[in-house]
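A further point concerns the way the authors explain their paired sequence and structure data. Since the whole study asks how a given chain folds, the encoding of that fold should be made plain. A single example would do more here than another paragraph of explanation. An entry of this sort, consisting of the sequence and the corresponding backbone structure tokens, reads as follows:

_____
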Amino acid sequence: MRETGRFAPSPTGPLHAGSLVAALASWLDVRARGPQARWLVRIEDADTERCLPGMGEHILQQLAECALLPDEPPVWQTRRTDRYEAALERLKARGLAYPCGCSRKDINEALARLGQRHERHGERVYPGTCRDGLHGKPARAWRFATEKFEADLPPTPGVPWEEKEEDGHDAGTGGELCFTDRRLGRQCQNVSREVGDFVLRRADGPWAYQLAVVVDDAEQGVTDVVRGEDLTDNTARQILLQRALGFATPSYLHTPLVRGADGDKLSKQNGATSIDTGSPSAALAALDAAARVLGLGPTTASDCPAALAGWVPEWRALYNSRP
């Protein structure tokens, strides 16, 4: 399979310093693999309530001003809803997706009854309320039955709940799903215990990130996912969905985060501002700052294309991305 990477921004605002780090890292990772590899851009606008009109086009312009040009026309999630519907139907047919009538308040109250508090920035673990039926409630979402799927995975003889994938990913033991991140090393998560059955689609329409990203990566032939470290704990969920749908699992590399003044990930919610790409010198300065976050040296180039070319061998040395 042709090596393929991608950058997949959500058009909820323009590119800021943190999102440019992810874009640069994914571009460099592909270019370090040689001319046969592909770099794609996907506009993740499935959650239409949060997306801003015209912002996808603006992000593409910012990328172009930084000389980060995709090898194929960008893909938009809102034009791919039939693929997500088909994937959900496959999961329903296997008994791995079910309707849920729980609101966030219902989940919080159920967790409180179990003596569990929801920590800020932590997962709100779904308690499995609707696994056995809605009990008169209207459906609010479709969820993925993690516990059922994990129980159906065949164990390796003599080792409880452990199987080795052909691509080297290890499912782990004791209900944990493990994978090796190219930067962070071995990562493990028991999805049913730490997350619970997660949402695939809300009843009012929007598709969940977890399902859409898995379907898109598979259809686009993505072999290497390079993205921000804040998405690391989404990976086990996505691997479960990949296996349930019969998709290959890509390799993963999660990049360092740019943090705001409060120490949290830099985002639109905590004051991240748009990067300035309005002139060649401003775009070069933004790229240079992003490269520093990734552990690359300062550029001496006079324009973005030359700077990018100079960082490719550095990236290859850091992350062993041999062509």
